[in-house]
Amino acid sequence: xxxxxxAYARAGLIGNPSDGYxxxxxxxxxxxxxxxxxxxESPRMTIKPRHPGVLEFESFDGLIEDVKIYGYYGxxxxxxxxxxxxxxxxxxxxxxxxxxxxxxxxxxxxPIRVGLAGSSAIVCATLRALLAxxxxxxxxxxxxQVILDVELxxxxxxxxxxxxxxxxxxxxxxxxxxxxxxxxxxxGTYEPLPPAKLPPIFIAYHDNLAEGTEITHNDLRxxxxxxxxxxxxxxxRWAQLAQEARDLIVAGRGSQIGPLMDANFDLRASLIRISxxxxxxxxxxxxxxxxxxxxxxxxxxxxxYDGDPARLxxxxxxxxxxxxxxxxxxxx
Length: 332
Fold this sequence. Notes:
The protein is 44% helix and 20% strand. It is of the alpha+beta class. Strands 1, 2, 3, 4, 5 and 6 form a six-stranded mixed β-sheet that branches. Helix 2 (76-92) crosses helix 3 (118-134) and helix 8 runs antiparallel to helix 9.
């Protein structure tokens, strides 16, 4: 039996990065890009890398460029860590896994390190394949935490729950990570939102503005742990913005969330260092009449506009001047 699984890219609509700090967010799935895993029974446990020539390059410069884009391990370390965390979860739950081996092969077309959750998509797709191969069930609200623990506990990569929740639930989801609720039930409150009630959305990204999520999260985490007052107030405000946006969307007034998204980014810019290129991702969209914020930790921006095709065309043309690509996310 051959098992094939997928997990899609995602974009944080509002509230991020409060998801790692008992805040609230809204996120949308982005079906335009996906990580895929193929799994089949084999004599030995085998992980096949993203491309077979991973240790062979056209030139020395090509090797350096590959390291800059994919790091030293690519997705292989994510898959190894996912296998380890899956094994540990089963032990913790008293689940005995059958003595079977498999080959895990992965592919991805999610732009790397631009805030569209490419790493967590690989982990999510891998865990889905392992669940199917070993016939194990993990409750849906719990699965995002298992996915997060792959990077947080196994690889010490700072991150939050938002990416994993939306990649498990898909569509559009309002997430409340209230501390008391998390401690009581082991997960947040996840409310699917009707995508039809969202305003017109676009995403712009630039490959050369890539910045790992750990750079932002690790710095913010240390400041949060020190009790920095501005950071604590910021997290509370980000959560409030997400709640206000959720209420507008549910009430059928999703077209009014633009100013809240702008406020989300402006607050971020006051608390976190932002490179000039990433700042331009937001400025260009705003100059074209859209409301814009980061989709993740940098490299990609998400914006809402009035739905006018001419405005979308102008956005695409203006972003092209800086080498950025623009597309409409497939959320349904």
